């Protein structure tokens, strides 16, 4: 007996997954195709590291941004993506009109820059920037608080079983102003994730805005806890 929620989940998930297509002709470099914001986006994946594969969480976030463009209007907004990986989310935010800074670890920047350039040139109002951001490292130097003026922080699947959760929290905290909205999609795999959510809630008001049980994925919106309650 399927509940209404199960049905909705399956419907939306199949709609999200239908945004991917595999090239019909096999070429020397492996790439995947995605359809968002009226564009065909080609992503080259680097198979040698975690951050270079498109995870379902990224698709969920892209789909959300496109289908909620009125409520979460990206036009001319300052947006930073942390753990941008292959760049899909940053590309979609750019196609939606945002000023995007896509960030990740140094070893991922080559592939990230390649994907972003290839999919945004001549298609976007603002060309995205690619910057190195190792969580918790040299934040004041590379992202001085005085010039952090992000309307949105985007994060897809940045919490998996790695040892840098405290640094991730510090990074969110550093980049986030009173007026910043965090849109964060997370796949729950292990107990660690729940612990991280608890720590996160100490600093931010967290609201679950979408859930996809069949993918184990939740989409959150977060804002800094108001000064009054602090």
TrEMBL record:
<keyword id="KW-0949">S-adenosyl-L-methionine</keyword>
<dbReference type="GO" id="GO:0032259">
    <property type="term" value="P:methylation"/>
</dbReference>
<keyword id="KW-0489">Methyltransferase</keyword>
<dbReference type="InterPro" id="IPR029063">
    <property type="entry name" value="SAM-dependent_MTases_sf"/>
</dbReference>
<dbReference type="Pfam" id="PF10294">
    <property type="entry name" value="Methyltransf_16"/>
</dbReference>
<protein>
    <submittedName>
        <fullName>Methyltransferase like 21E, pseudo</fullName>
    </submittedName>
</protein>
<dbReference type="InterPro" id="IPR019410">
    <property type="entry name" value="Methyltransf_16"/>
</dbReference>
<keyword id="KW-0808">Transferase</keyword>
<dbReference type="GO" id="GO:0008276">
    <property type="term" value="F:protein methyltransferase activity"/>
</dbReference>
């Amino acid at each position: 007996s399927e509940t209404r929620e199960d049905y909705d989940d399956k419907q939306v998930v199949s709609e999200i997954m239908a945004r991917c297509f595999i090239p019909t002709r096999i070429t020397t470099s492996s790439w995947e195709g995605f359809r968002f914001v009226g564009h065909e986006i080609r992503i080259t994946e680097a198979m040698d590291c975690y951050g270079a594969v498109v995870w379902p969480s990224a698709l969920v976030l892209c789909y959300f941004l496109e289908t909620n463009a009125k409520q979460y209007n990206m036009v001319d907004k300052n947006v930073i993506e942390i753990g941008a990986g292959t760049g899909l989310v940053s590309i979609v935010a750019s196609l939606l009109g945002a000023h995007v800074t896509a960030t990740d670890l140094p070893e991922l920047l080559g592939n990230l820059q390649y994907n972003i350039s290839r999919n945004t040139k001549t298609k976007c109002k603002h060309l995205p920037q690619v910057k190195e951001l190792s969580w918790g490292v040299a934040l004041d130097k590379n992202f001085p608080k005085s010039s952090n003026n992000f309307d949105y922080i985007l994060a897809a699947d940045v919490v998996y079983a790695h040892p840098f959760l405290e640094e991730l929290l510090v990074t969110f905290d550093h980049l986030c102003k009173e007026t910043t909205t965090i849109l964060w999609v997370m796949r729950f795999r292990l107990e660690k994730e729940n612990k991280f959510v608890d720590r996160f809630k100490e600093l931010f008001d967290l609201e679950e805005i979408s859930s996809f049980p069949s993918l184990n994925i939740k989409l959150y919106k977060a804002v800094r806890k108001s000064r009054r309650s602090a």
